[in-house]
Amino acid sequence: MTTPPRPDRLLTIDQYAALGETEYGYAELQEGRLVRSPSPTPDHNVVVGGLRDCLRPGVPDGHELIQDVHVDLELAPAGRPGSVRRPDLVVVDRAARRRVRSSGGMIRASEIILVVEVLSPDSHRTDSVFKRHDYADAGIPHYWIVDLQDRLSLVAYSLTMPSGYLETAPVRGEFTATEPFPVRIDLDWLLGDEDV
């Protein structure tokens, strides 16, 4: 099977969605441009799974946790080049998945209360700078970044419009939060190295 040539134009959200899941090997759309996403490492996947397990019990009624899903950031009008991100985890209004199932499209930024990204060596700047600004511009209230370097750390951002996200200091060991919902995460447990 040969891969069709990469589109030579800026893409709208609908054009991006029409490309299909693996046709081009691109995971995201940034202002109409296809963007490659690095393949996750085993540690990355283990940490994402652990985070999912830690967050699930606290997810508020009417919301759900979804892993590795395309999100329309709603930063451009319909028919104009758009932006799509594929975060590691999102906490989203439960009605969003039903809407996608019945009407098509993607999860929308306006349906999300929390985005979580786990940094990969090749995604550090993208997740820490570009996505942070994109998620803030999209109005997503909470953004957490988990860094796998050295000892695991988590930085929590909360939206304080119009200035963007307010950043907390990196937390190591135990992370606790009350917003967007109460949660306690043992960051050292996430890698599961206690048996090694």
From TrEMBL:
Residues 14-162 form the Putative restriction endonuclease domain. SUPFAM superfamilies: Restriction endonuclease-like. Pfam families: Uma2 (PF05685). One of its GO terms (molecular function) is endonuclease activity. The keyword Nucleotide-binding does not apply. Transmembrane segments: none annotated. Keywords: Endonuclease, Hydrolase, Nuclease. This is Uma2 family endonuclease. It comes from Allokutzneria oryzae.
